[in-house]
Amino acid sequence: MKNKPISASEISRYLYCNYAWYYERKYGATMLRRLRHEYLKEIGADQDDYGHFKQGLEYHAGFGKYARKLWPRILAAIAVLAAIVGFLIWRGCF
């Protein structure tokens, strides 16, 4: 294994699963994907059997689109609320 600098994302991966970090660093992601493909083929599993992982990706992609549409409404509500509070302070109600 070469002495490569370790990035912050690598530290995060290490803290999540130090074995996965080590094997990816030692063998590389391409080799691990190939080994995974061979293993799934050996046990007769479909490559598209991601199950919950695939559903999670789809959910987060959909939520991201929803959140981007929601931001203007949130900012508008904050602006209206700030205007109301500013008006009440100006009128001396606080």
Q: Please tell me how large the radius of gyration is.
A: 25 Å
Distance between the termini: 66 Å
Low-confidence spans: pLDDT under 50, at least 5 residues? none
| β-strand amount | under 5%
How would you sum up this structure, described in words?
- The protein is mostly helical.
- The protein folds into two domains: 1-49, no CATH class; 51-94.
- It is built from four helices and no strands.
- Helix 1 (8-16) packs across helix 2 and helix 2 crosses helix 3 (29-43).
- The protein is elongated, with a radius of gyration of 25 Å.
State the gist of this model:
The chain is mostly helical and 94 residues long. 79% of the residues lie in helices and 0% in strands.
Q: Main attributes?
A:
94 residues, mainly alpha
